[in-house]
Every structure is written in structure tokens, then in C-alpha cells.
Amino acid sequence: MTSAANDIEFRSVSKRYGAVTAVSDINLAVPRGAFVALLGPSGCGKTTCLRMIGGFEHPSEGEVFVGGSPMNGVPAYRRPVNMVFQQYALFPHFDVENNVAYGLKQLRPRLTAAEISRRVREALEMVRLGGFAKRRIHEMSGGQQQRVALARALVNKPQVLLLDEPLAALDKKLRTAMQFELQSLQRELGITFVLVTHDQEEALSMSDLVCVMNAGRIRQLASPKEIYDHPADLFVADFVGKTNRLPATVDPATGSVTLGNGRTLATARARAMSAGAATVALRPEVIRLARPTAANGALLEGTVTHRIFLGSSAEYSISVPGLGDLLVTAERHGTAESDLVEPGETVAMNFDPGEAHIFPA
């Protein structure tokens, strides 16, 4: 039996297009009222999963449930689901009111004109477009058009709202504003949102759950914090956020990891691994940067090759003998004597070995 606490469930779902497998044996449960992001590179299967929830595609194997009911074979228009497409798919010859009302006018038995008008008005107020009912679509900004698309999707009161990269066409400032808008709207409505994106920042900042996918499979499903701080494998560590990959060798007997430059770190994580080659994943922001002194006792030293100024912080590319180039993010006032290190300078680097994630090579 499917759980009543879940709005969406995939049970051993696969989707094939001829010889190509887009989604392979996926099991997924999305709790009722959650905001979940399907995150991954192009071609990983996330949009195929979204379309199987919406009824635009059907599984080759397995079952999809929405609201506890099996959806295999159920057409899109009979599902308690609505979708906001990447290009919004608004009717340019309709005004805002008629775009939002379109789905209501297709319902059977028919709604009265007064009921349609009331629900359109409520939907527009919900997305803060109360005074725009008679506005033509070409007279709206990108952000306003996205809100019209949201209103049209919400006016039918779906149990699940699907969002197919809805912010991709917006500039960075507007995209950030709309991220807050979508978060607030989802909390107000309490319905399940499923967002497809390849933008890791978008996924981490907006969702309650992140489902990281690659090559048609789920690599990790967890909270944004868990995904970032405790990646399940090297792919997740590398794809979500910025990560330095360092060659290493693990010795579980001593609980140590020897880096490619010969430097040895003691970490409890090594004791749970098999002996042999490994890759250490190290976030740029956990590395502390300083000018080298005898008192530093630095774990690593290297030469700054490039610097990118970011205002409150700076990103450095640092060449470390035996390890290659490391990316380090430092607060401007986090280094001794000066708030910026110049290219060509030698720097000392330290980090807590417990911050290093270790994966089989």
C-alpha cells in the first residue's frame, strides 16, 4: 500500500525510449506538503520523472502514485496535478484573466461565469497580480508572466504543482526575487511543489528535500544541508557546490589518509573504509588561508595563481605541489596583515581533517 503521508511515490520506475534508458529503477517518496527539487545535469532523467508525475509520459516499468492513487494509464487532464513550463506556455492572444481562466473553462460539469471570475480573481491576488486581469501578455515583464503562469496552474487547486525550470529565463536579480516568492507561496498554500532544475543554488535555497540524479538514477535524497555537508558519493560532492578533489591513499588500520603530496591526515572516516586509493573531497570554504610563518604549522602550502574578487570574499586558485590547483574561498578579512592575497604569493592552508569527505577512487 502507498503511504497516506506521501503525495508522490515512484515504485521501481523505469522509462525507456527505444534502446535508451532515461530513468532506471527509481524509488522515490515525496511527503505531503513538501517542496522537493529534482537536481542534476542535463540528460539525468529529472524532467522525465516530472513528466511521468504529470502524465505527459508513462513508465515502461513500475508504478507512479499521486495522492495515494495509482496513476499508470491515467491521462494528464485527470490527475490532481498542474505544471508550470519553462517557457510559461501562455496564450499571447488572451489577456491575463483569460489565460488564468482557461483551465477552469475546460472543467466538466461547467462552472458558472461568476464562479470562474471569483476563482481567477483569487488566483491573481495570490500571486500579487490583482490589478492586472485585463493586461495583455506582451505588456508584462518576465517576472509578471511567470506569475500569470503560476496563477493559471494554481487556479484549479491541484494537489501537486510541477515546476519545470520556471526561473531559467529570468535575470539573476529577478530569479532571486522569484525564489523567495515561490517559497512563500508554497508555505502559504501547503501543497506539494516539485521543482526541476540544474541550478544547485536554486535547489539548495528553495527546497525542503533535494533529489540529486545522474544517469537516470537517484544518487541521494535528503535535506539541502545533508546533501551539502554529507554527500553520499563523489558525484554528489562534486556536483552540489564547489569541491576540490585530491588524490589520496587510505589506511583504515591507523585511521589515516595520505594525500598525493605525502601529507598524512588523521580522520575517523578512514577507519570505516577499505585500504587503497581514494579521493578526498574538500570544500573551498573550509580551507583557512594565511601567509606562511613558522608558527602556522600549515597542512599545505602553495602559490596563488589566480584571484577572483567577489566583494565580501575572494576566490583563489592555488597551485600545491603534488596536488595540483586548489580552489579556496576566503573572507576578505580572514587573512593576516591584508584582506587580499596577491597572485604570486606563497600561502599556508589549514583545515579540519574532519571536514574532508573520503570516497573510493
Describe the fold and architecture:
There is one protein chain. The mean pLDDT is 91. It is elongated, with a radius of gyration of 25 Å. The protein folds into 2 domains: 6-238, Rossmann fold (3-Layer(aba) Sandwich); 242-360, Nucleic acid-binding proteins (OB fold (Dihydrolipoamide Acetyltransferase, E2P)), CATH 2.40.50. The longest helix is centred in the middle third of the chain and has 18 residues, at 172-189. With 361 residues, the chain is an alpha+beta fold. It has helices spanning 46-54, 96-105, 113-126, 142-154, 172-189, 200-206, 224-229, 234-239; strands spanning 6-17, 20-31, 35-39, 61-66, 69-70, 81-84, 160-164, 192-197, 209-214, 217-222, 244-251, 256-259, 264-266, 276-282, 288-290, 300-309, 313-320, 324-331, 346-350, 357-360. A 6-stranded mixed sheet has the order 6-7-8-3-9-10, sandwiched between helices. It is 23% helix and 34% strand. β9 (209-214) and β10 (217-222) form a beta hairpin. It has 8 helices and 20 strands. α2 runs parallel beside α4 (142-154) and α3 (113-126) packs across α4. The two termini are 40 Å apart.
